[in-house]
Amino acid sequence: MAVRKILQVGNLLLYERSKVVDFRSDDVKAIILDLKDTLEDFMDRKKLGRGISCPQIGLLKRAIYIIEDGMHLAFVNPRIVKRSREKMMVWDSCFCYDVDIFVHIERNRDIEVEYQTPEGVRKMEKFSGPLSELLQHEVDHLNGILSYQHLKKPMRIMKRVEWEKQGRPYITQGWKK
Ligand SMILES: [Zn+2]
Q1: What pLDDT, in 10s, does the model give residues 103-159?
Q2: DSSP states along the chain
Q3: Which domains does the chain carry?
Q4: Which of 105, 116, 129, 164 is least surrounded by Cβ atoms within 10 Å, i.e. has the fewest?
Q5: Distance of CA 13 from the midpoint of ligand 1 (Å)
């Protein structure tokens, strides 16, 4: 459909709560396709990235698109219904920071997510490790939360050049493949 512009940190729309996707009145296929096109374009240009959410393209709707290990996953109206007590530390970046800044934050290790497919089929699924932290990042977007808002003292951030130098660390503590 279309490659959309990605809003940058500071844009007030990113701090708003998105609305539930209505399968009767929303063009779900078009929304998902815009997310997919924009994500693929970004990954192509920046050589980085795995997921995108509607508010990042200026659309306050609850939908997410993920490409992980060549797998394409779409989540409509996702809701994290369970979070493990176990935590993990991750280096997290965002298209809204142009993947130039990474923040070191805590995430739940495992989550259970209830969502709908683009066809409207209800699903419930468990996620662990990389997909878990990625989904927590994207669902945060739907609630108007950016990852840097999870920073706790001592707040650690780094630029992408430094992250590349350190061997592209994602999960630094609390989870192993
Ligand atoms: Zn993001």
Answers
A1: 999 999 999 999 999 999 999 999 999 999 999 999 999 999 999 999 999 999 999
A2: --PPPPP-TT-GGGGSPPBPP-TTTS-HHHHHHHHHHHHHHHHHHHS---EEEGGGGT--B-EEEEEETTEEEEEEEEEEEEE-S-EEEEEE--GGGTT-EEEEEEEESEEEEEEE-TT--EEEEEEEHHHHHHHHHHHHHHTT--GGGG--SSP-EEEHHHHHHTT---EEES---
A3: 12-173 (3.90.45.10)
A4: 164
A5: 13
